[in-house]
Amino acid sequence: DGQNLRIAVAANAQFVTDSLKKAFQKGHPGKIELIVSSSGKLTAQIEHGAPYDIFMSADMLYAKTIFNAGNALTKPKVYAAGKLVLWTTKDLPVTGLDALKNPAIKSIAVASPKTAPYGVAAITALKKAGIYASIKNKIVFGESISQVNQYQLSGATDVAFTALSIVQSPELRHKGKWTEISSNLYEPIDQGVIILKHAGNANSDQLKQAKDFYQFLFSAQGKAIFTYFGYNVK
Amino acid sequence: MIKISIEKAIPTTLYSQPLRVNLEIGTGEFVVIYGKSGVGKTSLLRMIAGLLKPDQGVIEVNQQIWFNHLNKVNLPIQKRHLGFVFQELALFPNMTVMENLLYAANNPKDQSYLQRLLNITDMQSLRSRKPATLSGGQQQRLAIIRALARKPTILLLDEPFSSLDYQLAQQLRAELKILHKELKFTTLLVSHDPNDINGQIDQLVELKHGNAHQLRGTALHPTQNKSSLIGKILRVYPFESAFIIEIAVNQEILKVPTDPKTAQGCHPNQMVQITFIDGQILLSQLG
Amino acid sequence: MIKISIEKAIPTTLYSQPLRVNLEIGTGEFVVIYGKSGVGKTSLLRMIAGLLKPDQGVIEVNQQIWFNHLNKVNLPIQKRHLGFVFQELALFPNMTVMENLLYAANNPKDQSYLQRLLNITDMQSLRSRKPATLSGGQQQRLAIIRALARKPTILLLDEPFSSLDYQLAQQLRAELKILHKELKFTTLLVSHDPNDINGQIDQLVELKHGNAHQLRGTALHPTQNKSSLIGKILRVYPFESAFIIEIAVNQEILKVPTDPKTAQGCHPNQMVQITFIDGQILLSQLG
Amino acid sequence: MDFNFQPLILSLELSLITTVLLLIIGIPIASFLAFKTFRGKSILEAIVSLPLVLPPSVLGFYLLVAFSPNNFFGKFLDSYFNLRLVFSFSGLVLGSLIYSLPFMIHPLQAGLQALAPNLKEASYSLGKSKKETMFKVLLPNIKPAILTGMVLTFAHTLGEFGVVLMIGGNLEGSTKVASIAIYDAVESLDFRSAHIYSLVLIIISFVILLITYGLNKRLFDNRVHL
Amino acid sequence: MDFNFQPLILSLELSLITTVLLLIIGIPIASFLAFKTFRGKSILEAIVSLPLVLPPSVLGFYLLVAFSPNNFFGKFLDSYFNLRLVFSFSGLVLGSLIYSLPFMIHPLQAGLQALAPNLKEASYSLGKSKKETMFKVLLPNIKPAILTGMVLTFAHTLGEFGVVLMIGGNLEGSTKVASIAIYDAVESLDFRSAHIYSLVLIIISFVILLITYGLNKRLFDNRVHL
Ligand SMILES: Nc1ncnc2c1ncn2[C@@H]1O[C@H](COP(=O)(O)OP(=O)(O)OP(=O)(O)O)[C@@H](O)[C@H]1O
Ligand SMILES: Nc1ncnc2c1ncn2[C@@H]1O[C@H](COP(=O)(O)OP(=O)(O)OP(=O)(O)O)[C@@H](O)[C@H]1O
Ligand SMILES: [Mg+2]
Ligand SMILES: [Mg+2]
Fold first, then answer.
1. Which one of B161, C16, D27, E27 is separated from B222 by 20 to 30 angstroms, measured CA to CA?
2. Are residues C147 and C235 in the same domain?
3. Which parts of the sequence belong to the ABC transmembrane type-1 domain (chains D, E) (predicted)?
4. Is C10 within 8 Å of chain D by CB?
5. How many domains does chain B have?
């Protein structure tokens, strides 16, 4: 399997990575395969020998775990930071966090804080804004940020906390309305990337390809793409 | 009164004509049906029971229509109030002997009747056994008393004594006749055993196919090979390892050999019936 | 030579003693076993076949030990080269009549033998039928010829004629005797039918429990209620609806009534055997 | 580490309710499929098997859409029965019923088909209704098949995950069942909790299975030969 | 939209291989459990049922650990047989075999137990070996049970997802089966692809089930009554 460059991507970064891949391939022929899954699953797989070359995690923790176990060639490095938004596809006002107290809003989708950084951010924000206790019973948890999106799109929940990159994606750009949550209310959602040991075990071409893509993430063109999708970049 | 007039194309290659049955049976009669293997005896019982649908015709029981091909009447078997002793027994494997009986009984409180049924079949000691642990004959006895347990209006028996030894079968035949008189049910007994065919019965029905290999319409005609005489015993005396019985029948004096045990029960001046069928001869005492 | 000397505690409440069997059977003999229902006939056959393990004792067949409790020999049933006609038939529901036979046959090319088996049971026209579509008697016939199909060394039959009408059963008895002579297998036939018990057999074994309700050791004693005479026909003449046959037996002249059909087959100077058991009398021609 | 017994209890509850309800629903359906012959029967049989074919998470997704108050079915339940099936225990039960349907129906149907037809006939001939025949004669004689159906259903619901994940919403005490708790633990790399949950789940299930099989052996003694 | 037939073909392949292999493995195990009585049999039966109880993704996690070249079993296979079970098609097959084992064993065992014991005896009395008896007498008489086992296994493997997701790693052409492809599509909110995959999967399965049930009805005609 020497030819394919395999990039393991956390679910919330799948849209932006798809664009990055297309842009990157213009200058670099050769196949790139995206493996999209939850960061937890990808981490477990990488630890047990998954043939992936690059891992773009949803936060820093997963990337660190892999690095500490000696399965990465590079130290975790932040490639982008996500932004939290409050989103609805229904005819409800979502002007700010206070709007959640509206009795017309019966259910709020939040990613599980145990497994998803956006979940941690949402809960922190609600607590800081002082409304967590009053709306606690309206919250339902999605396994990941993509499940939160599914809850919202199917109409099962009234509003959802999701990533700016999602509501900015080509698929959802015109679906519903959203407000950004003030970045003071939560810790930055830093997402880390590492080159994996597998890339080094393969032929040198592939390692070079991996390094090129890694570099591309931090290039001006890469940063522009991240910004376009609603990420913060340094 | 049971009136049967039905037709059923039995998918057999033996005969090219369908099974046709025309029968009239009085309420409370004891009827024996016999005929060659594969001729349709079981099928006839199944049609009377409502387990097999005749192609056409009518079955009428005590003025009630059970089956009529024309206006599509087909009374469900549950409403026919039957007792059916299946040729393959069809005991309930999950129930003990007693549970089989209790399930069958209309009135479970009728304990003494169930005890009596167990007694006449020598099954008392087997009451808590499951069918799989019974011998062939024990299973057959259970099938008989299960059918009797609910005191049916019509009792259908499909070769019910085939696995029983002679003495036990005779005992059951006698007990069945007593119950038949007592409970006044109509009995249709399928059997090929001369002891049934030659017994004291109200009707004998032969299911038979014609000589042109056609299944002939059947009716109340007595068998060609069966006959009986009645006479009076004159003498009983030993002869070699056996006994000879002298019987006066009209002008003739018959001399019939018999086994020691039967001879013991025979005494001068007794009336006996001598029945013969297919080369077999049977002595039975009258009165 | 088959030597059986076994004991088995049959879990029955009827008798407090175990079933004990001591038997010697010559190779090629035709043995009939009878006894009351539930006495252990089927269990005996199952022990000979290796389907039921005796508690103790030895079974030896032609110098080969089939079972020995002491040194734990128990020859698997497959190596005993038997034919077994089960009381419950145990036909293979997935196979047609012919497939049942072909499966059983050692040599499937022995077509003419299988055809002959089908012929003697009148089953030719049913060859491609599955067992579920056969009548009770047809199933029983299939069970008999399936056991014969492999030309066994020992043939075990458990009440094989119980569901068959008299003529068919007699026909099969005759054919079985012919095959028995031809193929020289040893036959153990369990039956309660006088036609088997009174037939021309080498040994008659009664399984019986003693008067103290104990299951007695069994041996080669003939039944008490059975006997037979041989005589010569003098005359056959009509009498009422029947016929009378005069038979000279030693110094006596018997006068036995019979049905018209049997009478047709009787002619002066013929030798006949008269067998009687339990009140039944049977005429059969000799030679 | 983050272990508590609530998810395990919830899982057992869900499995028990699903198994009991499916047994009640399954018996008439299985007997219908086993004994009736009609045109299009194969179609009905194929439909019963369909929940098997869809990956659970996909099935869950479609159930989510169906149950959602946006759509007809969900709206109907909400306004007429005040019943919300998304993110509620009742929703999990309904989802599990649909998901596990074939695991109950198939064994029951096969068991009933294997019974000798004359058992039914014998019971009818004694004047017994279809219902009485089913409960007193047919079902007691297919105990291994019933056991199979119940074990497959129970265990499968216990291990169910995709559907629950989709329509449950991971709510402590009402929809956070054991399978979800384990998944959560694995995802958050909290392997110790995952191991403990798994172990407890396995031990409980093992004991339940052991008891079931032990009982079954004792109860199913109809065909003892000497 | 991102739809292609490769995952569907891979799924069908995986299901077919798993079903055939499990039938081969399942027959001896089921007959052992059905006919032998020994102490600790209930324990063995409970073990066979265990793969059912663990949520598939958790089972997948433990399989991942077991198969991993980091660990003894995986290392052993790798160095002696040059066989890598993680992230490979053979790994999926092995995972599916373990996962679907109870779906094959249970129905087969129940079917064999329901057979009249004298069928076996009759065949033995004709000098037939255990093997011949099994294949020519016993199995042909439990066709509905075999069908149940095969349908449950096939369909279940087709819909399998948790285990595959964990040990497969979603690699195009070797481990990206249909269930994963649908999951992927749903996750990336590409509902159109998800619908199409699901529809095609349902249609294919439906046709396969329909043919199977239709055939079964024709083949299983042993007990026709007049
Ligand atoms: N599994 C069992 N458990 C308990 N008792 C049994 C079992 N199997 C058979 N028996 C008993 O053993 C005795 C002998 O049975 P067997 O079948 O050998 O009798 P048989 O002589 O063949 O009777 P029949 O003429 O009625 O067929 C019977 O009384 C029967 O009840
Ligand atoms: N499902 C079926 N398909 C085809 N033929 C059948 C079917 N069932 C019964 N038959 C045939 O119908 C005929 C009558 O069967 P039936 O069982 O009524 O006979 P019977 O008189 O009871 O015979 P026996 O004395 O042998 O029990 C037989 O020749 C049998 O082969
Ligand atoms: Mg019959
Ligand atoms: Mg017997």
1. B161
2. no
3. 8-212
4. yes
5. 2
